[in-house]
Amino acid sequence: MLQPKKTKYRKQHKGRIRGKSKRGYFISFGTCALMALSSGRITARQIESARVVINRQTKKYGKLWIRIFPDKPITKKPAEIRMGKGKGSVEEWVAIIKPGRVLYEINGVNNIVAQKAMKLAQAKLPISTKVIVKDSEFIF
Predict the structure, then answer these.
(1) Cα distance between residue 113 and residue 53, in whole Å
(2) Domain annotation for the chain: domains and CATH numbers
(3) What is the pTM of this model?
(4) What pLDDT digit, counting tens, does each position of 112-130 carry?
(5) What whole-number distance in Å separates Cα of residue 58 and Cα of residue 54?
(6) What is the pLDDT of residues 86-98, one digit of tens each?
(7) Could you say which residues of the chain have pLDDT below 70?
(8) Whole-angstrom Cα distance, residue 11 to residue 85?
(9) 101: nearest Cα among 30, 47, 21, 17
(10) Residues 1-7: contacts with CB under 8 Å, at least 24 apart
């Protein structure tokens, strides 16, 4: 699963997800892509699950680019623990997604197959997304 090799600080504040994506809203590498329409967090497991679905659908032909990386640690405290005693341990890594961000790109496969693979990947993600094609690029 995806996670950073090393970070300067082990734990981070939660923060708020506001505004639109400042970068990563154009198709840079492929011909078909999956773009986020809402904001949220995507865990490393969800990123991997969508990647597996895309690879199975395209039968590993072509090239897949994952344009997001889970670099924010999410901490949790154990069940039935009293309040206090500091922040919990790191449980998972998430990527912060803003509207307009391109999540996945595919190149080298039939356009119909690529769009079907992206539709199946949409079901694995917790945010609303849209399939876009290089010719009719969606500007957010």
Answers:
(1) 12
(2) 32-79+86-133 (3.90.1170.10)
(3) 0.92
(4) 999 999 999 999 999 999 9
(5) 6
(6) 999 999 999 999 9
(7) 136-140
(8) 15
(9) 21
(10) 1/44, 1/45, 1/48, 1/93, 2/44, 2/47, 2/48, 2/69, 2/70, 2/93, 3/44, 3/70, 3/93, 4/69, 4/71, 4/93, 7/71, 7/73
